[in-house]
């Protein structure tokens, strides 16, 4: 077996998906393609899959034993384990290598019962949705009842009652969240009994274990096959398998896999995270600074050590395409230190009014309402407050921890009136004449008559805009109280950037800065 | 163990024989409903029930008594098996004297669906053309007309309602009422048999329905461990007559299996297994798993097969998941556990990260990671369903979470995970450890 063979290097579910069209909606290999594939015997298949998926020999054995001969039937099987452990790949490959007719449907792409049912029927009947048939399914079936009837017809129609027909349902844990998901799941588990077909093999693939399916009385316990997480050695094998220059890569992995795998053991994440680091590792080699010998390797080891920690931070965030291959060391560190989410740098324009409004919401949802008077009132409220609290150190400590906890709990709700009042205060305090707060300044003069009806409508419009882009969350309003409540949905970095951009002393207004 | 070696040496076993035997046994073990003709002896209590049910249905068919009965018992205790046997029996004794209508609560609990299905099955049975477009009232008319017709031609109708409790949970119990009401008239000849895993299924009936129900209940209870082992042995016995061509091998296999199942170690293994679920179905599933692991070259079942099957069949999903966690994920779990120990009823990612930083600051560990990395690990925990959101909130950092594993499970998990650093054990064990 040549390593560069694309089929062979696809030890990972993701790559395999690209080859086989794994997550496709109508992805099953059914009767039509059966003849074109070379069928392997059980032994060959066992060996092939065992080599291809390191650390999965036991599970492959177990699965193949249960599948048995082409005409054998078996109780429903639940294949489960954490994501990216090769569940789907192994089940699908085993079935296609053995040349068994099967229908594969993923409950993630087929997100409603109707789609699942129709996809299964399409595959059994060999129907392909195309432009000619206007992308319609072979059978229309909304309900489970129809599905069972059609399934019986389809299986009997194909005239292969003596050979087992396999139905693979992937991501079945999602069914739990569907409407009446419990009964659908029970029915699927009992499909063999419901259809009374003698040749139905049911395989369920799930991220969640059998204990999380809270099935009602109407269910049959499936046979579990557990795909455990990969050990470090297996991770090492898998990762080297997909690299062309595997000797150098294995040296690289020896130094960097261990710290990476302490944070995450998910193969796909590791592969993605280690890639930029490996490029970094190769750099001295390419520039000719280091020769590829034992001495050089030791040097490389020392060289790359410093980059592991920052790369770790980077690998778990979404990388921007143009910055994914940083040139200089500083750039790499710069990339590692910035968080590329759009929320952190203001990557978009906000109007001045919106910025003040956002600050007001932030202050309102951070500070308790009792503090408003001292902050925005006549002036010396804060100091008086501080003097009084100094009296006892322990009570101050207690208060501190309480505040801390409150801060960690996240922003609290604040009413519209309070929000607008704070907005008016800060907009005036900093002597900025916004185009929109002109009139708010006007009625701020006549302080006694601060009523909602005086608020200019365009400020409210701005608030609605902020809510619609999710910078401010509007809670479902209580009809008895009347006005909706708001809370800020931005993190600390972002709000400080906003404050800096308009020279607003935010820390002055936050009790717990 | 002596027996094993003697047999496998004395009798030449080839793969063909073993494969044939395994295929036959597999079919028996999981054929279930589709193989009612396979004449295995029933468990004693089930046999009694079978006789009663047989008599009951015979009365309906021969003497035109209208009867109703409920078969109750936990899942996998042979309710459907007994019923299928009786029906197969009756079909061979009184062919053409009755027809069967099968309904299942999972599919046909809705009255409209149920009537359609009844009409469809009756049409199929009597070679009539069935119209999909028929309305509810048309189907109902057809149904009542068929009842009369059948009674006139001295043909009984047997209604089988699987998952009976689901029919009873419909708001008006229309279907049950109509069926049981039809039983009261002299112009019909029907039997209604309900099957349910809920032992209180008859209590779910409304008054007007209950009064029409004849209150015959057949109880199917899980057998004793001895009976379960005997059943397993029965099922795993190869026929030594003309049905199976390798008679010498069959005799040796049966002998071997018998010896095996009499061993103390295996008995204790099975009794431990049945502590959780004693239904014959689960014992058969165990047998199936053991049979799957049979060595095709030696051709006999061993204790190891059963041990492995037991292990595979009753996994501990939470513990296995904890075993596979990365060190950072364990850290977060321990931190959450500590927070719970401090009687903090609400905590979110922010709280957890703060506490994590605090603990890391007090000790020098190499596992101090940035917020981003921790958040990803936190999401992994959510993905693996070890923790879950307590309520919905839009940003992940502030959403309150709760643990889905107990203190004890986490403790076992920490010991099972080979990567777990010692400091974590200390953090876990001593709540006030700083």
UniProtKB/TrEMBL annotation, chain A:
UniProt keywords, alphabetically: ATP-binding, Nucleotide-binding
InterPro entries per UniProt: AAA_16 (IPR041664), ORC5 (IPR020796), ORC5_C (IPR047088), P-loop_NTPase (IPR027417)
Every Origin recognition complex subunit 5 C-terminal domain range: 350-510
Keyword ATP-binding tagged: yes
Residue span(s) of domain Orc1-like AAA ATPase: 52-200
Membrane-traversing stretches: none
Spans annotated as Disordered: 382-403
Family of this protein: Belongs to the ORC5 family.
Descriptive protein name: Orc1-like AAA ATPase domain-containing protein
Species per Swiss-Prot/TrEMBL record: Riccia fluitans
Automatic annotation (TrEMBL), chain B:
GO molecular function per UniProt: DNA binding
Entry keywords, A to Z: DNA replication, DNA-binding, Nucleus
One example of a Gene Ontology biological process annotation: DNA replication
Pfam families hit by this protein: AAA, ORC4_C
DNA-binding among keywords: yes
Domain ATPase AAA-type core: 70-216
Cellular compartment(s): Nucleus
GO CC term (a single one): nucleus
Domain Origin recognition complex subunit 4 C-terminal: 231-413
Domain of life: Eukaryota
PANTHER family registered for this protein in UniProt: ORIGIN RECOGNITION COMPLEX SUBUNIT 4
Function in brief: Component of the origin recognition complex (ORC) that binds origins of replication.
Family membership noted in the UniProt record: Belongs to the ORC4 family.
Protein's name according to its UniProt entry: Origin of replication complex subunit 4
């Amino acid at each position: 077996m040549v390593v560069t063979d694309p089929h062979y290097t696809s030890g990972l579910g993701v790559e395999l998906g690209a080859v086989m069209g794994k997550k496709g909606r109508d992805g099953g290999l059914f009767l039509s393609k059966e003849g074109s594939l070379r069928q392997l015997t059980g032994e060959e298949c066992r060996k092939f899959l065992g080599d291809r998926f390191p650390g999965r020999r036991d599970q492959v054995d177990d699965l193949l034993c249960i599948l048995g001969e082409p005409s054998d039937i078996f109780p429903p099987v639940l294949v489960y384990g954490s994501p990216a452990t090769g569940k789907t790949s192994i089940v699908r490959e085993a079935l296609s290598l053995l040349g068994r007719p099967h229908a594969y449907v993923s409950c993630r792409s087929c997100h409603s019962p109707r789609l699942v049912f129709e996809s299964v029927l399409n595959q059994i009947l060999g129907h392909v949705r195309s432009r000619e048939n206007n992308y319609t399914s072979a059978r229309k079936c909304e309900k489970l009842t129809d599905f069972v009837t059609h399934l019986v017809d389809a299986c009997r129609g194909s005239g292969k009652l003596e050979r087992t027909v396999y139905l693979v349902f992937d991501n079945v844990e999602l069914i739990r969240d569907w409407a009446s998901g419990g009964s659908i799941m029970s029915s699927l588990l009992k499909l063999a009994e419901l259809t009374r077909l003698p040749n139905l093999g049911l395989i369920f693939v799930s991220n969640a274990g059998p204990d999380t399916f809270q099935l009602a009385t109407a269910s049959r316990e499936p046979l579990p096959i557990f795909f455990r997480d990969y050990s470090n050695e297996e991770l090492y094998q898998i990762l080297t398998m997909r690299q062309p220059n595997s000797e150098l890569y294995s040296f690289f992995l020896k130094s960097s896999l261990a710290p990476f795998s302490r944070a995450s053991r998910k193969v796909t994440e590791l592969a993605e995270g280690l890639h930029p680091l490996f490029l970094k590792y190769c750099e001295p080699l390419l520039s000719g600074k280091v020769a590829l010998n034992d001495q050089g390797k030791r040097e490389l080891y020392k060289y790359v050590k410093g980059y592991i920690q920052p790369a770790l931070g980077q690998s778990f965030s979404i990388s921007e395409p143009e910055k994914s291959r940083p040139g200089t060391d500083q750039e790499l560190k710069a990339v590692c230190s910035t968080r590329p989410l759009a929320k952190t740098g203001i990557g978009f324009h906000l109007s001045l009014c919106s910025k003040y409004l956002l600050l007001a919401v932030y202050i309102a949802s951070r500070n308790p309402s009792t503090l408003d008077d001292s902050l925005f009132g006549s002036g010396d409220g804060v100091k008086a407050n501080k003097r009084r609290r100094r009296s006892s150190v322990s009570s101050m400590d207690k208060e501190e921890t309480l505040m801390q906890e409150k801060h960690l709990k996240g922003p609290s709700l604040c009413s519209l009136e309070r929000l607008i009042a704070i907005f008016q205060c800060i907009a005036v305090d900093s002597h900025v004449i916004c185009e929109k707060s002109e009139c708010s300044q006007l009625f701020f003069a006549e302080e006694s008559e601060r009523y909602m009806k005086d608020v200019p409508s365009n400020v409210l419009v701005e608030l609605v805009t902020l809510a619609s882009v999710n910078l401010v969350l509007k809670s479902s309003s209580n009809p008895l109280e009347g006005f909706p409540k708001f809370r800020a949905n931005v993190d600390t970095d972002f709000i400080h950037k906003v404050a800096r951009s308009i020279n607003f002393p935010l820390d002055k207004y936050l009790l717990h800065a | 163990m002596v027996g094993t070696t003697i047999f496998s040496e004395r009798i030449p076993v080839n793969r063909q024989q073993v494969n044939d035997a395994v295929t036959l046994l597999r079919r028996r073990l999981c054929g279930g409903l589709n193989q009612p003709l396979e004449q295995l002896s029933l468990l004693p209590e089930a046999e009694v029930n079978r006789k009663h049910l047989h008599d009951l249905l015979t009365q309906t068919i021969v003497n035109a008594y209208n009867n109703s009965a409920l078969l109750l018992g936990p899942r996998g205790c042979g309710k459907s098996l007994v019923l299928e046997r009786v029906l197969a029996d009756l079909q061979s004794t009184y062919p053409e004297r009755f027809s069967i209508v099968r309904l299942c609560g999972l599919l046909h609990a809705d009255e409209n669906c149920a009537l359609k299905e009844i009409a469809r099955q009756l049409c199929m049975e009597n070679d009539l053309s069935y119209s999909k477009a028929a309305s509810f009232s048309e189907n109902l008319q057809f149904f009542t007309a068929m009842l009369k017709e059948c009674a006139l031609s001295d043909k009984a109708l047997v209604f089988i309602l699987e998952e009976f409790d689901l029919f009873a949970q419909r708001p008006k119990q229309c279907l049950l009422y109509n069926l049981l009401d039809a039983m009261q008239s002299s112009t019909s000849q029907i039997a209604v048999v309900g099957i349910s895993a809920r032992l209180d299924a008859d209590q779910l009936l409304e008054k007007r329905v209950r009064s029409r129900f004849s209150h015959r209940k057949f109880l199917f209870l899980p057998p004793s461990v001895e009976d379960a082992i005997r059943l397993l042995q029965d099922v795993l016995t190869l026929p030594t007559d003309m049905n199976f061509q390798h008679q010498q091998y069959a005799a040796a296999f049966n002998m071997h299996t018998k010896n095996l199942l009499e061993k103390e170690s295996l008995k204790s293994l099975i009794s431990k297994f049945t502590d959780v679920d004693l239904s014959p179905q689960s014992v058969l599933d165990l047998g199936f798993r053991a049979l799957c692991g049979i060595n095709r070259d030696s051709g006999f079942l061993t204790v190891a097969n059963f041990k492995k099957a037991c292990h595979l069949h009753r996994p501990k999903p939470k513990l296995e998941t904890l075993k596979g966690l990365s060190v950072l994920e364990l850290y977060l779990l321990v931190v959450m556990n500590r927070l719970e120990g401090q009687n903090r009823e609400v905590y979110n990612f922010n709280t957890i990260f703060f506490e994590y930083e605090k603990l890391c600051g007090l000790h020098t560990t190499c596992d101090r990671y940035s917020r981003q990395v921790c958040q990803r690990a936190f999401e992994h925990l959510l993905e693996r369903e070890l923790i879950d959101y307590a309520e919905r909130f839009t940003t992940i950092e502030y959403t309150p979470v709760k643990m889905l594993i107990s203190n004890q499970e986490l403790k076992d998990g920490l010991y099972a995970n080979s990567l777990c650093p010692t400091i974590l054990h200390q953090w876990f064990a001593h709540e006030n450890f700083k």
